[in-house]
Amino acid sequence: MTPPPPKVQRYLRRVTLLLPPTAARHVRAELHGNLYQTMLDARLNGLTEADAWAAALRQAGPAIPAAVRFARTHTLGLALRWLLAAGLLGGAAYAIQGTHPTSPTQHLAQP
C-alpha cells in the first residue's frame, strides 16, 4: 500500500489523537486500510486519485467526532478499571485502619 497523501495523514493523526499509543497505531492502520479501499472504489467510478482520496475522507466523516468515538471505545474500559482499583484500594485501606466508629449495641433509657 502506498503512503497516503498529507491530507489523509493529518486526518489519521486527528482521529487517533485521544488514544493511547498502541491503540492509536492499530486504529490508524485499520482506518488507513478502510480509507484506501474507499479511495480504490472511487477510482473505479472514474475519479482521479486526488478526488478519490477526497471522496474517501468525506465518506469517513469529520475527524473530531470520530476521535471521540474511538476514545470512548478504547479508553473507557481502562478508566473503569482504574476507578475500580481505586475503590478497592480505598476500601481495603478503610478496613485495615482499625478506627471504625462503634455502633451502639443497646439503647439507654432517657429520663
Task: Give a written overview of the molecule.
The chain is rod-shaped. It starts with 5 loop residues before the first helix and ends in a 15-residue tail after the last helix. Helices cover 72% and strands 0% of the residues. The longest helix is centred in the C-terminal third of the chain and has 34 residues, at 63-96. The protein has a domain at 25-80. The chain is an all-alpha fold and 111 residues long. α1 (6-15) runs parallel beside α4. It has helices at 6-15, 21-44, 49-60, 63-96.
Task: For the structure shown, list the relevant keywords.
mainly alpha, 0% strand, 111 residues
**What would the average pLDDT be, to the nearest integer?**
85
Query: Helicity level, as a percent range?
Result: over 70%
Class per helix and strand makeup: mainly alpha
The oligomeric state of the chains shown is single chain
- The outline comes out as rod-shaped
Total beta strand runs: 0
- Terminal CA distance reads 90 Å
* Beta-strand fraction estimate: under 5%
Structural Rg = 27 Å
Q: Which segments are poorly predicted (pLDDT under 50) over 5 or more consecutive residues?
A: none
* Main beta-sheet annotation: none
Task: Write the H/E string, N to C.
Answer: HHHH
Number of H/I helices:
4
Map the helices and strands.
Layout: H1 6-15, H2 21-44, H3 49-60, H4 63-96
Helix pairs in contact: 1-4, 2-3
Quick structural gist:
The chain has a domain at 25-80. Helix content is 72%, strand content 0%. It is mostly helical.
